[in-house]
Design goal:
Oligomer: single chain
Strand order of the largest sheet: 3-2-1-4-6-5
Strand content: 15-25%
Largest sheet: 6 strands, mixed
CATH superfamily of the largest domain: HUPs
Radius of gyration: 25 Å
Number of domains: 3
Helix content: 40-55%
CATH architecture of the largest domain: 3-Layer(aba) Sandwich
Structural class: alpha+beta
CATH class of the largest domain: Alpha Beta
Mean pLDDT: 86
CATH topology of the largest domain: Rossmann fold
Number of strands: 22
Length: 485
């Protein structure tokens, strides 16, 4: 019976990982483990995928001690360290005083702790090998609670989608946060832990009815199950699934539409074609307005439905000039057939340097891009290169040093930039290449180009230029390693 429970659990997990395209069977994963039942189940399940499902995952445990519960927090950290050692998995444990940070930074303890935790996970990815996935233990009950929480606070379609299966851990980052257990209810995770005899820690703060999320978990959902709908969790999850379908359609449609609306764009302003935008459906107008605000780089925090509606109303008046003020100092002005989105001129804005010299060989750090580039010049070794080519670690490229025309620089895109993507039949506009690669418009503005005197050598994170590919006559190789800081 125990073997059946474990086998059934692992098969469901493997099927869902493949269906959601979360990671490859031989991926390097950083696993966020708090010591609680959910993350502990995730850790053991990933180990069992290696043991019983033909996976060859390279795992690294990460635990951030928030120091919120004194000795109990320290005991959690020690438990995670011991569990990792027992499973022969490397582990990184750090401490962070969240109470001390909450005062100067503002915001809730939970919000600050989450941001600090995800920053920590990203650092672990950069420090240890080539991990580009961070796995965390959210499950189906968490998803249902999140959807209900957002409904009672007031949410749009995106909020109804619940917790995403996978997302960038930070805007523009190649590191993804993945949630392999999101399709499984918590009772199934507890059954699995009991079947394998794995201990876990309990957090007594989860039993209290503060904050609001705990009240929804401990009071509201049980009340709805007992007095309204015994299957309320399943109903919420179905609602979330349908909202995700709608949002996927909207995202694809907005991606195809947004750039065609842009008349002009600078660091401070974005101008859209108001006449064309006014003929779109209301839901598309709303999503395109959100996209425009994200393109300014100020984020959507505190942006409410009423703000979006106010901007949409500007589209109905083509006479003269009218203006709407949005949170975080953003203004939107209708000037005849133009809709101008402006960020506050007095808001600090870190300008990306137009061009930065790259140490060759050596390490170059670009703090505003959160990027580090290592350059090593090596003698050509076809055997090593062929081996690397068939097991290409993320963030690494090998180029033909003989074909380069130093000095090397990193710069932003320029109008008319072209390059020959490796494997393509010829040169292409960089803008067309990025669109075909499904790079988000906001990210396209900050794409980093490694260039020599002849032009782009490497669109960092995407593709090298065909003219610097390694060939049989290559004598020296430039080994490039890029990492997100």
């Amino acid at each position: 019976m125990i073997r059946m429970v474990v086998a059934r659990f692992i098969k469901k997990l493997a099927d869902q990982i493949e269906a959601d395209d979360l990671f490859e069977r031989d991926a390097a994963l950083v696993v966020g483990v708090s010591g609680g039942p959910d993350s502990t189940a995730l850790l053991h399940a990933l180990v069992d995928l290696n043991r019983h499902a033909g996976y060859a995952l390279s795992l690294h445990v990460a635990h951030l001690n928030h120091q919120l519960r004194g000795d109990e927090s320290d005991a959690d950290a020690a438990f995670v360290q011991a569990a990792a050692e027992e499973l022969h998995i490397p582990c990184t444990v750090e401490r962070d005083d969240i109470h001390a940070l909450a005062g100067p930074h503002g915001g809730s303890i939970e919000e600050i702790a989450r941001h600090r935790r995800y920053d920590f996970f990203q650092r672990v990815c950069v420090r240890h090998g080539h991990a580009r996935r961070v796995a965390v233990g959210h499950h189906a009950d968490d998803d249902a609670e999140t959807i209900l929480h957002r409904v009672v606070r007031g949410t749009g379609l995106r909020g109804l989608s619940g917790i995403p299966r996978r997302r960038a851990i930070r805007e523009g980052s190649p590191i993804l946060l993945v949630r392999p257990l999101l399709h499984l209810p918590r009772r199934v995770l507890l059954e699995y832990l009991a079947a394998i005899g794995a201990p876990s820690r309990s957090d007594r703060t989860n039993d209290a009815n503060e904050p609001t999320r705990n009240r929804i978990r401990n009071v509201v959902l049980p009340l709805l199950e007992s007095q309204v709908n015994p299957q309320v969790r399943d109903a919420l999850l179905r609602l979330g699934q349908q909202a995700r379908w709608v949002n996927e359609f909207l995202r694809d449609t907005v991606d195809k539409t947004f750039e065609a609306l842009i008349i002009e764009q600078t660091d401070q302003e974005l101008t859209l074609n108001a006449a064309t935008l006014s003929h779109k459906s209301r839901i598309l107008q709303a999503e395109l307005v959100r996209r425009a605000i994200r393109a300014l780089g100020v984020g959507e925090r505190n942006l409410g439905f009423a703000n979006i509606v106010a901007v949409i109303h500007l589209l109905g008046d083509s006479c003269g000039s009218r203006q709407v003020h949005l949170p975080r100092g953003v203004t939107v002005t209708r000037v005849y057939d133009r809709l101008v989105f402006s960020r506050p001129t007095d808001q600090p804005h870190e300008e990306l340097a137009p061009e930065v010299a790259v140490h060759l060989p050596g390490v170059t750090t670009l703090p505003l891009r959160h990027l580090q580039i290592e350059c090593h010049i090596l003698p050509a070794d076809r055997g090593s290169f062929d081996e690397w080519r068939h097991d290409h670690p993320p963030g690494e490229e090998w180029v033909n040093y003989d074909a380069l025309h130093p000095p090397l620089t990193v710069r932003t895109r320029r109008p008319g930039d072209r390059f020959w993507p490796l494997g393509a039949p010829g040169t292409r506009k960089l803008s067309d290449f990025l669109i075909d690669a499904k790079v988000k418009p906001a990210v396209r503005q900050t794409v980093a180009l490694l260039c020599d005197r002849l032009g782009p050598v490497y669109v960092i994170g995407y593709r090298i230029d065909d003219r610097v590919k390694v060939t049989s006559s290559t004598k020296q190789i430039l080994h490039l390693r890029t990492a997100i800081l």
